[in-house]
Every structure is written in C-alpha cells, then in structure tokens.
Amino acid sequence: MLPLILVLAAAVQEPPVFRARVETVYLDVFVTRDGLPVEGLSAKNFEVSDDGARQRVELVPVKALPLRTLLVFDTSLSLGAYKLEHLRKAATHLVTHLRPDDPVEVLAFNEQVRSTVIRVADDLASALAPAPRGGTALNDALFAALLRSGPERTMVIAFTDGEDNMSWLGETQLLEYARRTSAVLHGVAIVPQAPADRAELRFLRRAAESTGGNLWTAPGAAGLLATFDQILAAMRHRYLLRFEPDPPRAGWHDLRVRLRGARGRVAARPGYWIEP
To answer: Which domain holds residue 23?
Structure first.
C-alpha cells in the first residue's frame, strides 16, 4: 500500500474520479424549515433536474440501507487532553447509537493520517489513545476519507480544533474532490462565541455544504456529545432519492433539487461525475 504522501502527490497531478453508476444515481437530501427537519415528504414533493432535464425520481427508505461512517478527528497538539477526552466520549456515544450493520472507520490525524476500522467501543478508544501532538493536516485527512467513500450511503464527520498548517492539498483541490463524492460531509468545531467566522471554519463549511452536509459548532468540549447527537438525528431524517439519468452522458452533471407542494430549505450535493 502506497504511503498517503505519495497518493496525495499523485492526486495533485491527476484528480481522482468518484464514479457514479450510469444506470442509477442516488441523491442524499436534507430538508429543513425554521431549523427543524421536515418529515413526511414523498417522491412527488421533489423535483430533480440533471443538467436542466427533469428526472423521474423514486424515494428509497433510509432505513433500507446501512450507513457507513467515517470519523475524521484532529488529534494535533492544539487539541489538548481535555478536549480529546470529550471527543472520545462523544464519538463512543455516536458509535453505540449506530445500527449493528453500520460500518465505522476512524481517521485520526495530525500531520499524518492513521486509519482504524472500528468494531466495538474499545476499538474507538484505542484509535484515539495517543496523546495530542504535531501539526494539523485537515485537507489531507478529508481527502483520505473521501477516497474511502463508495457507492454505499456514507457519512463523514470531521472534527478539527485548529487551522490547517501541514496539508499537501490546497483548498481548491479538496473542494473539487468533495463535490464529486457521494458522501455527506459534516464538519464539527468548538466555537465558544458565535459567529463561527474563522477562515478555516469558513472553508470547512464550504466543503461540507458542497456535499449536502453542514458545519456544526459546539460551545465547548463538553457540548460535543450533543452535537454528534444532532448530526446523527439529521442523517436519520434525510431523504434518499434515486433516478436513472436521462441522458446518461459521461462527465460532470449539474443537479438541482426543488420542493413541490411543500416549504423548506433543501441541502443536497450540487452534481455528480460519470467517468468517460
């Protein structure tokens, strides 16, 4: 297996392709009104356009598919032992509330990325056992997570405590990768005072929203557990749409999702890519 640094160096020259099956496209959609999830919608409430062409969509029950979870956690020196302990507790709580068939992987990072497949809570504690140290390579860690996303329904939760100061990949490259993946990215940060207007958090918000996800903030380390609960609840209240693209041409497809007969704010990825 090539070291991540070599994979990243190659990626700078040739962007990876996140493939979508030509015959079926899945679209993970979140609808809110006044900050709360809108429930009870059906396929007829969604209008999906693919490059401007209206598509015939079906609604897939969210419970019918496993949810693959990738936890991308900052363990750099800026985190500190106190925040890391609360991060462990919040992540353990999240994992124990997933379904037994929901696979989980942890990518802990500082200037390097370490990957661990989780089976029980003890595995999670072990994956986050090392003391905080080193710099922060958030973009590289997000890239590694996006490379692991496949055709299955995937949730990426990325927690960071500081500014990226060690990544090979720039923000523009990472955003391009994020918008091509089928994964839903949720960013998490500790923000004692609103608004969350730090440069690194603005970027994390952009990356998350480019996948149909969001940036979530906690007022302190002790609030991470409640924040993770909110993310999991949001994923369980999403709508999974399916359609067969017409026409199924190769290349980038712009997607637009509107509501019909209902009111709300729609969050969904902006498009998908089909390899030539």
So the answer is: 18-63+238-274
- Give the model confidence (pLDDT) of 218-257 as tens digits: 989 999 999 999 999 888 899 999 999 877 788 889 999 9
Specify whether the CB–CB gap between 128 and 106 falls below 8 A.
yes
> Are residues 184 and 232 both part of a single domain?
yes
The Cβ-side half-sphere exposure at 242, using a 13 Å CA radius, reads 12
Phi, psi angles (nearest 5°) of residue 248: -90, 60
The reply to whether 82 and 187 lie within a common domain is: yes
Shared domain for 194 and 251, answered yes or no, is no
Question: What is the rounded average pLDDT of the residues 15-36?
Answer: 74
Same-domain status, 51 and 149: no
